[in-house]
């Protein structure tokens, strides 16, 4: 396992040799080149230049308004003054990890020194708005003027992805300019930005062609020789819609009687599309038209892919020739290997393909699936399999590849793919349900993950195996998942870990994970000698199999154990090894117990001033992970250190939090005894005071007497549900009851209410 806490990260599992690997599409960072037939619209260039000091530049207009072409042209000019990064967004960017990996990659292409402050390995391992984006903002603040263009922002439908960009807009430094092109209004506080003069807007009316621009395009660039009244007619009929004028230009170049053609040209964008279907496509030569129609089902394409999908040869040359004459074929790289159609043009071609041959798309998508499988572009292979209704093929890919996606932190990508399966298909496949359960639990979606686990258990297929992800059986995967995500139940975790060790033997690729979960259970049951043996094996295997998070976690626990034994030199060496492992593999914001272990080793050498900040940082990282047992461990270690250095006031606050966290656990194992050993004040109090309710508990008790649920009480007090539940358990224990009604009755009898 490459992770200590799978609720916080997904870099968790053994790679499976031969599994499909998610390939990064560098074409996303390549803006469309300005070609000879692209008009340089000076008035809009000037408007964009004036927005250099605005926090956000928004180009919002319907399809076919020329947004991408405009920004690509401006980028080419602006890049002579300052670095300009470009990202073409697509549906895959709804996974925030994919989105920000792409953004940071694009920024580093134009500003290489930025990578020193924002290493790529942080993407996925560090929480976005808590760690990664603040670091990125700080790094950008140290740079000179810099621009980032996000094209097709409307492709982001994920709330988390959009919210992360909104946070970034709000916090970006003044030297940074973000430019968005979109068909729809982004969910940002535009009114506030507008009021503070921090927003530059270009809307559909701004992008419409004027007569002068239309003349420059049709007569100047294209040499069509149109009369003034003919240009005026086209501008009026298209309402200056850029796509309409370009579409008209394509067909005007092929007709002899241009005056009659313009007279028949439609007056609205809908009529333009209809007219194009009837007049423009029909005038294309059959080979070119056939290639355009059938390749329109592809999001992006190259010559070899088109050859495979269309079952022909020579597509590379045909695409190159078409790109020289058709402004709606957009090159995606400098070499002319990859292309896409302008979105509106592509939609039109797909509609026409469906009209002419309703069954063609599925056949073409299946061929695209095969080609992408063979070339390792798994995202696209899964996409085309699903588009073609090939749920068996898509399921096989996901079952084999989900581990690699998890190690790449692309949780949302797999979850989104699984949402595209029909319910009956998904709920009949234990492999996919297990992949969904792992991903949801790693994403911290505990309730949804539990539903997926329940669905697996209902299938009753525990004997199936081995699985493509390396598990020996469905039961082994399910059992290890339960052992990896204990959610505060040490007893249940220990039982699951024991069973996992029986199911996955010494040669299993999952053995380091198994060793870690067994060691974890023994540790929190108080058997540190046995725990150390399992952690030692896990750390050793983690090195040989490149499972760095498990290795770092096991080393952190071994350092704790050595310190508890008084073996301080060994404690130091193991803690430093854990810290080096975490640092070398970008895990600083993932495994908080490593920071705690290193801090404690420093404290043992009299360096408490260095130790305390490290331990506090470790507690903060662990707190984000939501696993109460590990949080209690970090807090108890912090508490002991604070007591050791005489910081009693801070120790009291940590003690209270540790008590609440432990009380919230269904089965905290040996933690209550360790907590009791750190509460010296209890030895000096009368026994009766052990049962006194704290002020917070009295507040919760009073609210329990009303109609509010525990979750509603948490909202009232701005506390988490788990914290409130911990207070309720403590109230029941102190009052000697086991239910809410009994607690209220006892409290009234003691005049506490």
Determine and state the CATH class of the largest domain.
Answer: Mainly Alpha
Overall radius of gyration: 31 Å
Instruction: Assign the structural class, choosing from mainly alpha, mainly beta, alpha/beta, alpha+beta, or little secondary structure.
Output: mainly alpha
Count of spatially separate domains: 4
Strand order of the largest sheet: 2-3-4-1-5
In the predicted model, the low-confidence regions spanning at least 5 consecutive residues are: 1-12, 16-24, 682-688
First-residue to last-residue Cα separation:
50 Å
CATH T-level topology of the largest domain? Serine Threonine Protein Phosphatase 5, Tetratricopeptide repeat
Overall form: elongated
Question: What percent of residues are in strands?
Answer: under 5%
Please tally the β strands and state the result. 8
Q: What portion of residues is helical?
A: 55-70%
How much is the average pLDDT? 85
CATH architecture of the largest domain: Alpha Horseshoe
Work out the helix count.
39
State the fourth-level CATH superfamily of the largest domain: Tetratricopeptide repeat domain
Query: Largest sheet, described in full?
Result: 5 strands, parallel
């Amino acid at each position: 396992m490459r992770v200590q806490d799978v609720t916080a990260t997904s870099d968790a599992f053994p790679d499976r040799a031969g599994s499909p690997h998610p390939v990064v599409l560098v074409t996303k960072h390549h803006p469309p080149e300005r070609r000879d037939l692209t008009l340089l619209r000076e008035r809009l260039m000037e408007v964009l230049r004036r927005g250099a000091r605005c926090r956000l530049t928004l180009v919002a207009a319907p399809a076919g308004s020329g947004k991408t072409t405009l920004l690509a042209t401006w980028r080419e000019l602006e890049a002579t003054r300052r670095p300009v990064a470009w990202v073409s967004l697509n549906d895959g960017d709804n996974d925030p990890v994919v989105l920000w990996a792409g953004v940071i990659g694009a920024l580093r292409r134009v500003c290489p020194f930025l990578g020193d402050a924002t290493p790529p390995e942080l993407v996925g391992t560090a929480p976005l708005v808590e760690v990664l984006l603040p670091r990125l903002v700080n790094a950008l603040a140290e740079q000179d003027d810099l621009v980032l263009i996000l094209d097709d922002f409307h492709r982001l439908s994920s709330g988390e992805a959009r919210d992360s960009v909104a946070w970034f807009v709000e916090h970006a430094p003044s030297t940074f300019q973000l430019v968005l092109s979109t068909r729809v209004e982004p969910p940002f506080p535009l009114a506030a930005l507008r009021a503070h003069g921090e927003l530059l807007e270009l809307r559909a009316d701004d992008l419409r062609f004027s007569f002068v621009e239309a003349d420059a395009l049709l007569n100047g660039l294209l040499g069509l020789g149109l009369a003034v009244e003919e240009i005026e007619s086209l501008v009026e009929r298209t309402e200056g819609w850029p796509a309409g004028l370009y579409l008209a230009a394509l067909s005007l170049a092929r007709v002899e009687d241009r005056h009659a053609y313009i007279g028949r040209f439609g007056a609205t964008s809908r009529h333009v599309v209809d007219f194009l279907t009837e007049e423009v496509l029909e005038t294309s030569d059959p080979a070119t038209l056939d290639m355009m129609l059938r390749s329109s089902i592809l999001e992006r394409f190259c010559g070899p892919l088109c050859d495979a999908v269309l079952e022909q040869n020579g597509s590379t040359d045909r695409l190159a020739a078409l790109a020289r004459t058709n402004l709606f074929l957009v090159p995606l790289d400098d070499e002319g290997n990859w292309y896409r159609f302008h979105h509106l043009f592509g939609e039109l071609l797909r509609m026409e393909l469906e009209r002419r041959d309703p069954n063609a798309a599925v056949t073409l998508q299946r061929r695209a699936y095969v080609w992408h499988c063979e070339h390792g572009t798994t995202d696209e292979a899964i996409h085309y399999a699903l588009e073609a209704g090939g749920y068996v093929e898509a399921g096989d890919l996901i079952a084999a590849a989900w581990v690699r996606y998890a190690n790449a932190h692309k949780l949302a990508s797999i979850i989104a793919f699984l949402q595209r399966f029909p319910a009956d298909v998904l709920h009949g496949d234990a492999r996919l349900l297990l992949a969904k359960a792992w991903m949801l639990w790693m994403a911290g979606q505990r309730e949804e993950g539990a539903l997926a686990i329940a669905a697996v258990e209902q299938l009753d297929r525990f004997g199936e195996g081995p699985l493509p992800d390396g598990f020996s059986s469905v039961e082994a995967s399910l059992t290890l998942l339960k052992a990896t995500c204990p959610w505060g139940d040490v007893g249940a975790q220990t039982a699951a870990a024991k069973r996992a060790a029986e199911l996955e033997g010494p040669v299993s690729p999952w053995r380091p994970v198994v060793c870690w979960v067994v060691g974890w259970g023994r540790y929190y049951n108080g058997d540190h000698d046995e725990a150390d043996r399992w952690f030692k094996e896990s750390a050793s295997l983690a090195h040989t199999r490149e499972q760095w998070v498990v290795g770092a976690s096991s080393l952190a626990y071994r350092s704790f154990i050595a310190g508890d034994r008084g073996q301080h030199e060994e404690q130091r060496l193991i803690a430093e090894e854990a810290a080096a492992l975490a640092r070398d593999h970008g895990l600083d914001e993932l495994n908080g117990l490593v920071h705690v272990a290193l801090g404690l080793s420093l404290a043992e050498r009299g360096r408490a001033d260095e130790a305390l900040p490290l331990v506090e940082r470790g507690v903060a990282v662990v707190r984000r992970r939501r696993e109460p047992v590990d949080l209690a461990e970090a807090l108890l270690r912090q508490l002991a250190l604070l007591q050791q250095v005489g910081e009693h006031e801070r120790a009291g606050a940590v003690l209270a939090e540790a008590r609440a966290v432990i009380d919230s656990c269904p089965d905290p194992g040996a933690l209550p005894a360790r907590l009791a050993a750190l509460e010296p004040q209890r030895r000096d109090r009368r026994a009766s005071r052990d049962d006194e309710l704290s002020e917070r508990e009295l507040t919760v008790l009073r609210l329990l007497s009303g109609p509010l649920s525990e979750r509603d009480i948490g909202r009232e007090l701005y506390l988490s549900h788990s914290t409130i539940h911990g207070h309720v358990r403590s109230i029941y224990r102190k009052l000697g009851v086991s239910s809410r009604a009994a607690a209220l009755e006892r409290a009234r009898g003691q005049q506490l209410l």
